[in-house]
Write a structure and sequence with these properties.
The chain is an all-alpha fold and about 240 residues long. About 75% of the residues lie in helices and about 0% in strands. Helix 3 (about 30-55) packs antiparallel against helix 4 (about 65-105), helix 5 (about 125-145) crosses helix 8 and helix 7 (about 160-170) packs across helix 8. The longest helix has about 40 residues, at about 65-105. It is globular, with a radius of gyration of 20 Å.
């Protein structure tokens, strides 16, 4: 068994940027749906919430008669946001699936907006939903017991849906045991949970800057993050094989 030298955060990000070199338009088209959702929700938050504060201010009693309509609007938009966010999560899974393949086949040039619908193929859709639901249930149970262990488990299970992708690609007609994807994720993330946490944390500054710019920065940031996380999983999946040789 040989020791694997894992990539740093900077190296993973460089791999993502190198993947998109000369192909940023393709990357944006692939991530167009989550970009649209992120930008619109950011604009809504930055512009609509201050108007609520204005209406609720005691110094503006005239505006308070509009409170009921405003709260109704909040509920309607909140419900829409919840439903649309669940759909967007599906698209994001398919986008990372495509990005993983893109990383593994550097010559890949057929990356279009249509590829963002990858998750809705018969090989992926049901399995992805099942794995994600099981993961959410297990994390929720852990959170009910203790907050910190529950938080740690989110990282232990974080690669389950990508492991499912590789299993489904290897044997599309085979029987997939979805709990095995979660178990394999725990094994894969052993010793790497802190790495992933720090990797995610390193994007906080960019998140704030992108949001301040009315969400426009997310046009660049979302593809960048997706490719970095894909590079992280791709390195783990290859590194475990190399370590066992």
């Amino acid at each position: 068994m040989q020791e694997v030298k894992w990539k740093t955060r900077a190296q993973l990000k460089s791999e993502a940027k190198e993947l998109y070199r000369g192909k940023w338009i393709d990357a944006i088209k692939l991530n167009l749906i989550p970009i649209f959702f992120k930008v619109t929700t950011t604009i809504y938050f930055l512009l609509f919430i201050p108007s609520i504060i204005f209406i609720l201010d005691d110094n503006f009693p005239v505006q308070q008669r509009y409170m009921s309509n405003v709260f109704l609007t909040i509920i309607m938009l909140g419900s829409f946001n919840f439903v649309f966010s669940k759909i967007t999560v599906l698209f994001e899974s398919g986008i990372v699936y495509t990005t993983i393949d893109w990383l593994r086949k550097k010559e890949e040039s057929n990356v279009t907006f249509k590829k963002s619908f990858t998750i809705f193929s018969k090989n992926y859709l049901i399995g992805n939903i099942v794995v994600n639901r099981l993961t959410a249930i297990f994390v929720y149970i852990w959170l009910l017991l203790l907050i910190i262990p529950g938080f740690i488990k989110t990282y232990s299970y974080s690669q389950a849906q990508y492991i499912f992708k590789d299993i489904a690609d290897t044997d599309p007609n085979g029987n997939i045991f979805y709990l095995d994807c979660i178990t394999k994720s725990k094994e894969l993330m052993n010793g790497h949970k802190w790495r992933l946490f720090c990797l995610q944390l390193s994007f906080i500054g960019w998140e704030i800057l992108s949001s301040i710019c009315l969400g426009i920065g997310h046009i660049w940031l979302i593809p960048y993050k997706k490719a970095t996380y894909a590079a992280f999983y791709n390195e783990l999946s290859k590194g475990i094989v190399e370590a066992s040789e």
